[in-house]
């Protein structure tokens, strides 16, 4: 019984067979899904390593509990207490290796339209050799010449890549909102229950958005301080109201009959989330009250104990990875999969669903992971405030993170507004 399973796992690690679990009771899995899961697993592994590298707490724990820690650092020529392997420069080098790995596969899989070729076989299998290549890329970053020049140049490359990743995520969010509304609106013709579901979803979304505005007005503004919070909360709330009215205006309805309240509801909730995240990322403001310096415009949770902050830092790291996977998942779901062929083995059954063609773009998939690597690098190192940064201080806030998130709000609104106005500006391109 063990022999077929061992052969299957060996074929997965060192051959082109689809990856699967050893347990035969696991549900069937498509090869395209298992492939993307494995790349996401690689990405998660490197992300965790980067978080550890930015954590003095982990470094101290290793120093205290590993007897040969200092000796090992000396043998590796990693400096005293492995100083070369920690800090923002180490994260830059590791993420450089991961970015090179995904960028190589982006180029390698260009114009791959069939899953039966040798390049597709390498993309879908050979996981152990690819892991060795990824490891070599990450380690190789520490041996680059002109380290100072590399870090300076790579910082700007990372910033551009991080912004592009955010832009793609915002574009996919707008596309998701339109598709959701189109699909549910189409169902109304056949079943009136879809109309109720559409109305309920719209009501929930706008209730959340309005509730978020009230929440931030109560906890993130102050009568004598936090002017930026007041201004941007008012601006973002007003812009959400404007795009909502625009979506249901008569001239937009003539151009796009299916335009309704669901799309602006999705956009408004996301913009309010980004606004809340931006306010939470802003450096704390102090106000003198009765001769005592008091932190204002901060939700009580942000001023909690160190244990609370550690918990939130961990949750934030998970959300960070989820953000990246969000984009990947949206990409995975964009293409239909019509053909399944079951491969039965000793373990989990694999459905080879790409026999007649790829169901997603291999190079685009790797390109998004390439940008995600840069986004993780910039986020973990606190964007442009990287000096002496620690992962435990991620919640203390910085102006660079604040402005990036605030700009993301406006880009999201502009993108959605353009999708509404584009048929009017360029009517020939949108004719049926």
TrEMBL record:
It catalyses: a 1,2-diacyl-sn-glycero-3-phosphocholine(in) = a 1,2-diacyl-sn-glycero-3-phosphocholine(out); a 1,2-diacyl-sn-glycero-3-phospho-L-serine(in) = a 1,2-diacyl-sn-glycero-3-phospho-L-serine(out); a 1,2-diacyl-sn-glycero-3-phosphoethanolamine(in) = a 1,2-diacyl-sn-glycero-3-phosphoethanolamine(out). GO terms for biological process: defense response to virus; innate immune response; phospholipid biosynthetic process. It comes from the Eukaryota. Keywords: Antiviral defense, Cell membrane, Glycoprotein, Immunity, Innate immunity, Lipid biosynthesis, Lipid metabolism, Membrane, Phospholipid biosynthesis, Phospholipid metabolism, Transmembrane, Transmembrane helix. Belongs to the TDE1 family. The keyword Lipid biosynthesis applies. The chain crosses the membrane at residues 37-55, 94-114, 126-144, 156-174, 194-219, 231-249, 261-279, 364-384, 404-426. GO terms for cellular component: plasma membrane. The lineage of its organism: Eukaryota, Metazoa, Chordata, Craniata, Vertebrata. This is Serine incorporator 5. The keyword Glycoprotein applies. It is a multi-pass membrane protein. InterPro entries: TDE1/TMS. It holds the Pfam family Serinc. It is found in: Cell membrane. Its main location: membrane. Signal peptide: none annotated.
